[in-house]
Amino acid sequence: MAPSAQLISQVKPRGATGSRETAVASNKEELGQKRQAEESKNSKAARRRKSIATPQQNAAGIPCEARPAICDLRTIVINLERRADRMEGCQERLQLHCPELPFTRFLATDGRQTQIPLEEVTTSWNTARNVIYQKKRAIRMGWDDLDTYAVRELALSPGERGCSSSHIRAWRHCLEQSGGTERPLLVLEDDAAPTAEFCELLDRAMGALPADAHLLYLGYSQASEWKRELSPELVQSEYVWTTVAYLVWPAGAKLLLDRLPVNEPVDNWMAALAAQDEIKAYCVRPEVVLQADAWNVNSDVAHSDEHYWGPNSDSDIRHSDAPEAMAASVAEGSCFWDIDSDSE
């Protein structure tokens, strides 16, 4: 049998007569069915990857680039040059739950080795505003400890100043990479741990996100009640802690840079701007990025307010920013929290 006839016979449908015309027609039909199945499969994959900016959203004035698909979402991971181990751990966690997310390493400012201008970050801070929101959280959570939150004047640690500087540089990078568009930047710290629902919930939250968004927190610790609820997956924030994961849009980056210096820990400073309605901050609910370790465990940053429970407390802090050097200058301050323990 000729090779061509053998090929035709292999694709005969059951019950075929064996004629060349019937075999060729059947071959075309089967190939067409396979092509349709493949096109359907590709179409579904494309729908999963496409920008979530619908025609209605575009009509409302939201550019497509302002709502990119996850595979097009530019992402940086802030990581100290001397902590390649933390970068490797973060990379493994990202590949586990969001393998399509493109990310690059963004070297953090080392506050112990870099001179950071006072015009960008101050050297001390007053805890008065933060105490207000610590008390609001305590009331919301039903904690009986309102008398323990005291207003202090604290020195910012080198790690805290370096952290602020790193985020300031990230905001500038957001503007540089936007090319004059409203393309956002996803900023991750190297202890970021995406959840299994990362892609699905972020997609839904972005679909409900208003055009005025400056920040979208993917991980946070909630202080006060939400300003408003826009969807089951999206709320507007009044005051949240941590900067483990957030989206910043160029308009938001410009506002943040215009309001320098950062005069408290950077997460408190950003939260205060949202509380004062100077920026529009939203949160994915529930969080889709947690911290790999509990707050202040295995951290590179000595927190100036970490001795809330007193200097002799056993807080399991193992950071590289010399806690013993901080102990002499740090008074009792604010409360510990886990990023995923007190948000609604």
TrEMBL record:
Region (Disordered): 1-60
Residue stretches of biased makeup (Basic and acidic residues): 27-42
Boundaries of every Glycosyl transferase family domain copy: 75-267
InterPro entries listed in its UniProt record: Glyco_trans_25
Pfam families (UniProt xref): Glyco_transf_25
Protein name, as recorded: Glycosyl transferase family 25 domain-containing protein
Source species: Polarella glacialis (Dinoflagellate)
